[in-house]
Amino acid sequence: MSIRHLVANVGRKVPNSMKLSIAGLTTLLSFSYGFTSSSFLSPSVGRANSFLHSMSSATSVATPSWEELQSTVGETPVGQALNKEVDLRSQGRGSAHVQNRKRLFQSSNEDDPPITLFRDHAGWCPYCQKTMLLIEEKQVPIKIELVPMRSYGDKPREFLQKVPNGLLPAIEVNGQIITESSVIMELLDRWHPPEDGYKPMMPQDAAGTQRYEQLARLERELFSWWCTSIFRPESMIGGGNPLAKLMGGGDGEMSGSMQGFLDCIRKVDAELKQTKGPWFFDAEYPTMIDFIYVSHVERMLASCAYWKGLNLRDPKWKLDGINRWLEAFEKKEHYLAFKSDYYTHVKDIPPQYGPGYDGGFEADRKVFSSSIVGANGSWTLPLSHDDPLQPLYNGPPLPLCVLESLDIQPDSENGAYEKADPSTMRKACRLMAAWKLAGNGDKVARFAARGGPDGAKNPRKTFGAELADPYAATDESVLGSVDEALRIVCLALQATDQPDQPDAEYQEMLKDAIPSQNTPGVVSSIVYLRDRVGVPRDLPLASGRYLRAYLNWAIDTLS
Known about the structure:
This protein is mostly helical. The protein is 49% helix and 4% strand. Strand 2 (115-120), helix 7 (126-138) and strand 3 form a beta-alpha-beta unit. The longest helix is centred in the middle third of the chain and has 25 residues, at 206-230.
């Protein structure tokens, strides 16, 4: 589809219902990278050049406005499905989502649940994640307040008045505050018993309780070995041959801490193989102990690959029970809603646990770490259909409403999407990314322009998270150009007839739109934005990788 033809379809008025339903680019709306929710819901301020200059060539067209881009993507099947889903979620219904503020579920008659959960705004906290997974699986009606973690923002005074130590998660019931995820999860289970139609999450007999307690102790043992292996230098804890590594050898050597971690995770694998199904208990669904494990195992996968060159999902490690368990989780839409990608984890782990130390299998570590941060082409068009480290299609890679809107069906009763048509899946991923970007594009542009030469000024304070600067300033001198560049990126995302990457026409449109004196500042602004796209806060990985890749296309075009 030519630019002229695509632009011709974006001039229609945006329906009011769509304006109300578009939530915006949620990763960039969050506290964790500098925005408060109120700043994104309020009208944008200081936006330059709402309707920017046309292309200088004979076939020039004006860059569509954000409102026009919203209209176009909102009329696609994907956009219509997402708009409807946002309306449902605003009522407490619909699917799980990291930014939901209320969960009523389809069978609940409670319009005003008596319990309020306080959880982190960005989806970084593993203890909030396991609590939300239990809530979704058990379908507990609940209100939700989103609060930043200390590593990326200041906690609101109103929250600290209720929870002086600032701990997350926390629940409020009848004015009483309760903290600690394990306590909260057990109480939610007790307060919503099977006789009221809720799934039990804890064992119902003495033998089951004994197994639960044994598995809980094993989880703490695994957590301890993970911390020892990742967050301490290998040369200081014994094992392996650090001198050989310094001399360029010993790639196959394994430190004592890594061996201890592997031995422990094999115990976990053996426990999973004892049951008939994929879970720790012989139930048809995951129970509390599964949730207690999975949020940290998810972080173990990312950190072991990035800092140690250890891909725990590789069949060579023979962790068949853990892989079957992970695949069963990945078939659940509500797990996708709270699942991060490896890049987000390697950025959110250090401010919570401390810096990770390189070691392990050095050759693999270099390959894996480059892939995770997009340095080896993993964020460059054309993208591979799947990700070599993070399998996308063991379950739904996108919200079910998006997949169903394009008639993308699971392979069979196993719930995988490995046989889905790659071109249709690519279209779904790109349109979801375009929908997110168009939803609050002017505010996203202001956020991105912090990366300009006169931006990112943070006179107040810094935070533990490497990329967090919630008080940073926008570079007003490049804002107009950044805004137009991002609108062209959004336009290119919608040109789904171009399967690999935008053609020369889009490249020329982008080059002609940006004055040469602003090009360096626009490039640095788009880099700033790209590095802050988070999963799941902004998009699921299958779609988020396309947003990152199209931002890289713009960076490469302008560079």
